[in-house]
């Protein structure tokens, strides 16, 4: 499995979660063994100039915090993009570290169908309107090289248009829109034909007092003989033992009993983090 994250340039520079995930990328219990970050860098976050949105030259500079290699590639050159993506995949598979592909491109139209980018970016959009679209540019190159014929290119375009048109026609046949189907991924066998859960009742999860007492006693004992524990911790364990004896629980003991009962059923429980390590949870 290889994780690929797709970012916008303004989001990559401006969202704190990007910086946070880079710092999680190589932690022992959290690593994904390297993620490929693809940044669609069209130099415009809605209508904001890059100079108004960040203080670094490149939107991808945040990746330098973990020394991830960053490849800046001209997205008008599809073969260069493919070459760089191959290098990124090879890097990730060889070194199991994050890598960034910065697709330097442009947005031909506005932020959405209603947006007119000329209002805020007149000079840039005068240049963009002069640009030959990448599909035409690459098709002309392949036809000139003799790699494909004009007829083959036109057939491929017609084939793709046909797929889109047929899907559009089929969409008109759907008279009822089931919003629910778009909002969640129904688990097999979990919902009935109408999209309703088969059963809203929960199976009983209670356990015997004898088992709770056993878990409480284990949670307040030291498993290793002649093991010298911190005096503060021994007070906590003693108090926990007393609570178990008096049939009283606090949050921490309740958590122990919950985890303990699940472990007794043979279900693996993974706890991580500083608070777990120091015994807060």
Automatic annotation (TrEMBL):
Gene Ontology annotations of biological process type: tricarboxylic acid cycle
InterPro entries: 2oxoglutarate_DH_E1, DH_E1, THDP-binding
UniProt keyword Phosphoprotein present: no
Domain of life: Eukaryota
Cofactor(s) annotated in UniProt: thiamine diphosphate
Coiled-coil annotated spans: none
Protein name per the record: OGDHL protein
Family: Belongs to the alpha-ketoglutarate dehydrogenase family.
GO CC annotations, alphabetized: mitochondrion; oxoglutarate dehydrogenase complex
Keyword Repeat recorded: no
Keywords: Oxidoreductase, Thiamine pyrophosphate, Transit peptide
Residue span, Dehydrogenase E1 component domain: 2-179
Molecular function in Gene Ontology: oxoglutarate dehydrogenase (succinyl-transferring) activity; thiamine pyrophosphate binding
Pfam families on file: E1_dh
Matches recorded under SUPFAM superfamilies: Thiamin diphosphate-binding fold (THDP-binding)
